Amino acid sequence: MKAAELLRVSGASLDARNKKQETPLQLSCFNGKRGMAHFLIDRSSDINSRDEDGRSPSLAASRYGHVDVARLLFDYGSDVNARSTRTWTPLHQASRQEYLDLVRLLIDRGAGVNAPEEDR
User: Fold this and answer.
1) How far is the CA of 86 from the CAs of 24, 53, 82, in angstroms?
2) Per-position DSSP letters for 4-65, written without gaps between them
3) pLDDT digits (tens, 9 = 90+) for 41-68
4) Alpha-carbon dihedral of residues 49, 19, 99, 117, nearest 10 degrees?
């Protein structure tokens, strides 16, 4: 994270986006990098940012079963019921892959267990 801090103090945006409109926080969550996610959140990175498919960091963490990253996001107030453009929620993502610990966490944090999943 020394490189990330060096970039930050040099004026780099913590919410810069790639071609898919993903932020560094979203990429950290996709890859299960809890330490980097914490670094970014502590420096005011947008925990509810969206990429071109409407995926938030919590959807990214849930898609790949990163329960510790998801817990961190929810501890900082990320939306447990965030929806992608396909209207999927973190609970849909975690349930689909049978990430039981993450499903439990989502339910404990108030995820809508009856939220419809509708492909657009």
Assistant:
1) 22, 8, 11
2) HHHHHHTT--TT---TT---HHHHHHHTT-HHHHHHHHHTT--TT---TT---HHHHHHHTT
3) 999 899 999 999 889 999 999 999 999 9
4) 70
Angle ∠(91,94,89) on CA atoms, nearest 5 = 35
Tokens of 53: 């498919």
pLDDT at site 65 = 96
Instruction: Specify the pTM.
Output: 0.86
Judge contact between 36 and 72, C-beta under 8 A: no
Residue appearing with tokens 């979203």:
26
H or E element: which one contains 94?
helix 90-96
Q: Rounded mean pLDDT of 56-81? A: 95
Tell me the average pLDDT of the chain: 89
Are the C-beta atoms of 83 and 54 separated by less than 8 Å? yes
CATH architecture of 2-108: Alpha Horseshoe (1.25)
